[in-house]
Write a structure and sequence with these properties.
Order of helices and strands: HEEHEH
Strand content: 15-25%
CATH class: Alpha Beta
Number of helices: 3
Number of domains: 1
CATH topology: GMP Synthetase, Chain A, domain 3
Length: about 90
């Protein structure tokens, strides 16, 4: 079983967070990392709310919890460069 095979499972698990991120001007996406882990990427749109994004460790915990009912885990989270240094 690979992350690419069960993309709909991951999409469903992350869907509410994807919608919330979109409301604040961010795009949430993911890519397979290793066997059953993913990399979550958050990109800012020009309308992004800079104060709305939580620090990377908090985002990692949120994404890990979102995937708790799936066979997948979060390898790491990639945030926009401004947030990663802020």
């Amino acid at each position: 079983m690979s992350a690419a095979t069960d993309g709909p499972v991951i999409d469903q698990a992350l869907s509410s967070f994807s919608d919330m991120m979109a409301a604040d001007g961010y795009v949430l996406s993911w890519t397979p990392a290793e066997a059953e882990s993913i990399v979550v990427r958050i990109d800012a749109t020009p309308e992004a709310c800079a104060d709305c994004l939580v620090p990377a460790p908090v985002m990692q915990a949120i994404m890990t919890q979102a995937l708790a009912e799936t066979p997948y885990s979060v390898d790491h989270v990639v945030l926009p460069s401004e947030a990663a240094h802020g």
